[in-house]
Amino acid sequence: MTETRSTGSALLMLNLGLQQGFALQQCLNDTGMDSELISDSNAIIQASQELALIKNLASLDLSQRLAFEAGSHYHLTTYGIWGFALATSATLRSAIEVGLNYLELTFAFCKITLQEDDSQAYLQVEAQHLPEASQRFVVERDISAIINIHRELFSPVMPIGEAYLRWDKVLPNSFYEQVLGLIPKFNQDKNGVTFKRELLDMPLPGANEASRKILVAQCQELLQDRLKDNSAALKVRDLIIANLDQQVDMESVAKQMCVSLRTLRRMLSAEGTSFRKLMDEVRETLALELIQGTNLSLEDISYRLGYSDTANFFHAFKRWKGFTPNHFRQTKR
Questions:
Q1: What DSSP string describes 255-277?
Q2: Where are the domains of the chain?
Q3: What's the fold here for domain 231-332?
Q4: Distance (Å, rounded) from C-alpha 199 to C-alpha 263?
Q5: Is the pLDDT of residue 210 over 80?
Q6: How many whole angstroms separate alpha carbon 59 and alpha carbon 56?
Q7: Is the peptide bond before 203 cis (omega within 30 degrees of 0)?
Q8: The model's pTM
Q9: What letter would DSSP give residue 190?
Q10: Phi, psi of 122 (to 5 degrees)
């Protein structure tokens, strides 16, 4: 996630909290925000400020309804350019690819990944990197928002098959059916939603390739503006890419940035990421490009990505995508 964001999401959740009867000061306690700032549509806040608001709301919401209700208020139009880029995509697969590539333009705090098997597609939604007090609220909000966005993309078809959560069930079935359109499975080993894999390549009703290209370019520009030149993560990504075939590690990157290992670790943590995560992101992105766009052998690709053993590359790819690089190359061809 980027360090800054607009107040739109925070205001939406605050208003829902006030409607539940929560006191304004309780909601905004220790957030560094007041009602004037949060109501200013042109104001920019820190992601940590919205997360502090979420922590307050989670502690106040004894009914545990607010997260799901909040997620149902996040529409494609709520996200601006990002939402329009999804809506104009040709298929659900291309919409998800755009959505995940530019997830930092949204209000999501969760890490969201797409995985596939022979018949099902999975959007896994996790928040273990966040304070425990906020994890459930954030996951339930983002899953509810995902379901709402998919409903709008496919209108009037509802493509989600199941939703699953790590926690106990606390609300009646009628609530889940009303807000989500389904009853989640509880006490699972992960969080997310699943749907038929064939839906990934189903045409979307709002597809417009010319508009999509313009909107994706605008997403790229907006993301670059948000990350800015002083982003430690951006610098680390660039250094990883430049040195990937030389067994790059965190220590060598820290030396090139003229900082200590401890300082680099702290800088990345402040931006909500880590060296290992950035290495994984770079390798996954380059792996997909090399497998689809070149005739290099998988052994050569493994070497270029800095793996000393091809088996480690295969294991990592299966973790990223849910299947082997051989299967991915055959499917794309």
A1: HHTT--HHHHHHHHHHTT--HHH
A2: 1-62, 64-228, 231-332
A3: Arc Repressor Mutant, subunit A (1.10.10)
A4: 45
A5: yes
A6: 5
A7: no
A8: 0.69
A9: S
A10: -130, 130
